[in-house]
Write a structure and sequence with these properties.
By secondary structure, this protein is an alpha+beta fold.
């Protein structure tokens, strides 16, 4: 039997998706008496709601809910889920009411006719700065990483370093923009709540809804059979799930709520803007003597969220003196959330741009400079790496990309009206594995059904988990059926942090091994597994995925327009489960980085609050035509200190480093260093004109 892992098996659900048989959260068959919900957003940046009423002459509605008549919810930790619980408006666009009508059109029309009376309205305080009066150090940052870490005396080392880079770098607010908007269909029956939700975490949504509505978790069922993208925006419970469930209980009817595209720029999260002060000190050979990275970002007034923006800086280069910090400003904004490669993407843009500037200052090739500062062990913990392939990725990428054709002097390569340049950056992302459970049973026809409450957000989880199960059972993948996307299945962590395959796959491997250990696969045999003890027993090692990103750009000398001609990513990501799906994930992440580098920017409305460009007509994301040659490859990497399958995760790392590689290529092409993303033509032309 040929092993399934490592084969480019077609996606399990591909035919269902292209033929329309795959059902999403808002596509459940209509149920008799179903009603539609449309929410009313706050039109002021900060203040209080005094009254909400429906104007005369509007469409008839089943209900108008606002904080004056909405049911009181349980104490969910995330205050963004306290929907309609308070008269306070924390940011423009926050949900202040919802209307229920027989048709979607009537619900939308009724919402437009709702009149909201506000009081205590004030101008928004929504500008992030490194000296904002509200800045503070949170207790920890995303994923539990420490807020500040200092080793040695970087300030003293910087005063004696032969070469010093000391600059500020910024990234704009970014929006996840999944193809499928956030949507929930909710129904109550005999005290049991069932929701079809567009989520990356069915088990997590189950727990939050149980708490919010005072239920036992087994009386809440969350179904997310198909999810049309999330990129972190659906990584935890969002207000739409709570609002739909509340409306369904209030009316006694099945409620369908689909957030409009504009709402995805207000109430479901976004990548925080960041300010990064990076200081590097090096000796004459380019060896780093000091690294300091201070990051600043924003959170809302109602819930704290802090990305680990400086965390990657703690692991990537060796230096005896290091300092990394995180500071949060509390502003009149919606709560930021995860977005693909949270923290690492903006943080490594800053550091990898600074490293390129150090290469220029020292006259050392950017690849050689990185290799000279390669650590022997993890600088943050002192632990050995389970495997680390940065140097191999850099060298193999340089050979494949044709780095030897790069001219180290900016502005020297020209074709007609364009200047050409190449750039490079490294990438890293931690290997994150969470405990999971799974179950397996042999059916009467001899096939095996494996169950886990995972979520396939378009990455191919169904397919890869079938491959993992097949190898553990020593059967063909066609003999395995995978059940996921339902909180009624064995509890599992959500899809995020590039941890899904490792977390779920470990549980799937364990349960399939247990089933096989029972002897021949006989109908009726079954097994269950929990990896909590296995995950906790892992050795103290630094487990990370790595990569090298390469970009070639062409910059128009008259307009300053930047076009990406080529991008190549070379990655060390452990064992690749399915090459077809892996390449798709990696080039998707690289395209994310391209958008971050050149076009994506939430424009903050400093007068009225919120974002001025809150739709896909004005918030620009990259299309296929924005890069004509995009490729991702990986090195053969065997790491025995990971989950049993040996993979490191691929969803995030493709997005790390690619924006810096593009920015560094722009500098090589033009001599213009843009430190504030995105790199728009006005920023290039302004520096050209002096």
């Amino acid at each position: 039997m040929t092993a399934s892992i490592g084969q480019s098996i077609q996606r399990t659900e591909s035919v269902d998706k292209v033929t329309g048989r795959a059902r999403y959260a808002a596509e459940q068959p209509p149920i008799a008496g179903q009603v539609y919900a449309w929410y009313v957003p706050a039109t002021v940046p900060a203040g209080t709601v005094e009254n909400v009423e429906l104007a005369d002459g509007g469409p008839s509605v089943h209900a108008l809910l606002w904080h004056g008549n909405a049911e009181k919810l349980g104490d969910v930790e995330d205050a963004e889920l306290h929907v309609l619980q308070s008269n306070s408006v924390a940011y423009r666009g926050q949900i202040v009411a919802v209307v229920l009508a027989d048709t979607l059109q009537n619900a939308r029309a009724a919402a437009a006719a709702v009149q909201v009376r506000y009081a205590d309205v004030r101008s928004p305080d929504n500008t992030l700065s490194a000296d904002h009066s509200s800045l503070y150090a949170p207790e920890s940052v995303n994923a539990g990483f420490p807020t500040d870490v200092t080793v040695g005396d970087p300030d003293a080392a910087l005063t004696t370093a032969e070469h010093v880079v000391d600059h500020w770098y910024s990234t704009a607010p970014m929006h996840n923009s999944p193809m499928e908007p956030h949507a929930t269909t909710a129904r109550w029956s005999d005290g049991v709540l069932t929701v079809w939700d567009s989520t990356q975490a069915p088990s997590g949504v189950q727990g939050d809804l149980a708490t919010a509505f005072g239920l036992e978790p087994e009386n809440v069922r969350v179904i997310a059979e198909n999810v049309g993208g999330g990129f972190g925006a659906k990584g935890s419970t969002r207000p739409n799930a709570v609002l739909a469930a509340m409306a369904a209980r209030a009316t006694g009817k099945t409620v369908k709520l689909v957030l409009p595209r504009q709402a995805l720029f207000d109430v479901v999260g976004y990548r925080t803007p960041t300010l990064n002060h990076v200081r590097l000190g090096a000796d004459s050979s380019g060896k780093l003597q000091a690294i300091a990275h201070d990051s600043f970002q924003q959170t809302s007034t109602i819930f704290e969220f802090c990305e680990q923006t400086s965390e990657s800086t703690r692991h990537i280069y060796a230096s005896p003196n290091r300092a990394t910090t995180h500071r949060l400003a509390t502003l009149d904004v919606g709560t930021p959330r995860w977005m693909r490669a949270p923290g690492e993407a903006p943080g490594m843009f800053a550091v990898e741009t600074a490293i390129d500037e150090l290469a220029t200052a020292t006259g050392i090739d950017p690849i050689e400079l990185r290799i000279r500062n390669e650590p022997d062990v993890d600088p943050a913990s002192g632990n050995p790496f389970s495997s680390r392939s940065v140097v191999q990725c850099l060298r193999e990428g340089a050979q494949k990309f044709g780095w030897d054709r790069r001219d180290s002097t900016p502005g020297r390569r020209r074709e007609g009206n364009t200047l050409l340049g190449m750039g490079v950056a490294t990438a890293s992302y931690p290997v994150l594995i969470s405990p999971s459970t799974a179950a397996a049973r042999v059916e009467q026809d001899g096939t095996i059904t494996v169950s886990v409450a995972a979520s396939d957000i378009g990455t191919g989880a169904r397919t890869v988990l079938r491959q993992i199960a097949a190898d553990a059972l020593e059967v063909d993948a066609d003999a395995v059926t995978l059940e996921l996307g339902d909180s009624a299945l064995p509890k599992a962590p959500g899809a995020g942090g590039s941890s899904g395959t490792s977390s779920w796959g470990w549980a799937v491997t364990k349960v399939c091994n247990a089933l096989r250990d029972q002897g021949p696969l006989q109908p009726g045999n079954s097994a269950e597994a929990d990896t909590t003890d296995d995950v906790e027993a892992q050795k103290e090692l630094a487990r990370m995925a790595f990569g090298a990103q390469f970009a070639e750009v062409a910059v128009d000398v008259d307009t300053g327009e930047v076009r990406v001609r080529r991008m190549l990513g070379v990655f060390g990501i452990g064992k690749v489960m399915n090459p077809r799906l892996a390449r798709s994930q990696l080039i998707g992440g690289m395209t994310f980085g391209l958008g971050m580098a050149l076009m994506e920017s939430g424009i903050v409305d400093h007068e009225f609050g919120g974002f001025a460009n809150h739709d896909l007509a004005e918030y620009h994301i990259p299309a296929c035509a924005d890069v004509t040659d995009l490729d991702a490859v990986w090195i053969e990497e065997v790491d025995t200190e990971l989950a049993p399958m040996g993979g490191k995760g691929i969803g995030e790392i493709g997005a790390v480093g690619s924006s810096a590689a593009i920015g560094n290529a722009v500098y090589n092409a033009t001599g213009v260093r843009v430190r504030d993303l995105p790199i728009t033509l006005d920023k290039v032309l302004t520096q050209w004109s002096g």
